[in-house]
Amino acid sequence: MTDSSYLLAGRFGAATRLSPKALRLYAEQGLLTPAHVDPATGYRYYGREQVPRARLIARLRLLGLPVARVAQLVDLPSEARVVELRTWLRAQQERLADRAEIVEAIARRVDGGDPVLAAAVDVREVAASKVIYRQRHVNVDSLDGFTADAAADIRAHLRSCGLSGEGPMTVHFHELVTRDSEGLVEVAVAYDGSVEPADDLRLRLRPATREVFVPVPVGYEDFPLVLRVYDALEAWLDAGAGVTGVDSPYEIYPGTGGARFDVAYPITP
């Protein structure tokens, strides 16, 4: 083909900084198909009007986006594409901040931890209680919504049964919860009296126990800074002679001494 409006794959790749391997991949994915393939030679030709699309694809791939996501973005109007990319970038910045905090958490364990939080660690006895609870797998972004909805539904159910519904709430983290992965979380409210389970609300008796806890200071309530509170408790458990954690950690609302909530682990003496 001698038409100057077409470029052989090699020249097209050089003009758009896409390797032969990348061009083959994008052709197979339907993302950037040749304008013409010579049936006799198998040579692939691209139209000059495809150059801007190819360059955009190359830039999007530099962001580490998967081919399927790139395919969605290149077909959007320019303004919508910019909105999508800025939203993605903010999410990436949040994840990077979270990861930085996790790295610092590991470093703090090496450096001896946060002395203020370490000094706030205390132990108390907890009486047995009846609780009504809901469990669900959630990630960090959906955690607050799940907690608020579950607490509201539980308290409404207790009131519909003629009970106060104002007992303390605990949020149990049975599995690790992050922005990228879901973990099993339980929201429970203590009550006195008699109540029946409803839908996905379940009942159980929480036995008497001892717990090690920290009232969460202002400014530490949200992820990722709340990890520092968990670090302080885990460091105490690791250093405590003859004391071990016996179950998953939980948050207690309201907290002690005016704190919004406490973080606690049940322990054996």
Automatic annotation (TrEMBL):
Coiled coil: none annotated. It comes from the Bacteria. Transmembrane segments: none annotated. Residues 15-76 form the HTH merR-type domain. Pfam families: MerR_1. SMART domains: HTH_MERR. InterPro entries: DNA-bd_dom_put_sf, MerR-type_HTH_dom, MerR_fam, Reg_factor_effector_dom_sf. The keyword DNA-binding applies. PANTHER family: MERR FAMILY REGULATORY PROTEIN (PTHR30204:SF97), REDOX-CYCLING DRUG-SENSING TRANSCRIPTIONAL ACTIVATOR SOXR (PTHR30204). This is MerR family transcriptional regulator. It comes from Allokutzneria oryzae. The lineage of its organism: Bacteria, Bacillati, Actinomycetota, Actinomycetes, Pseudonocardiales.
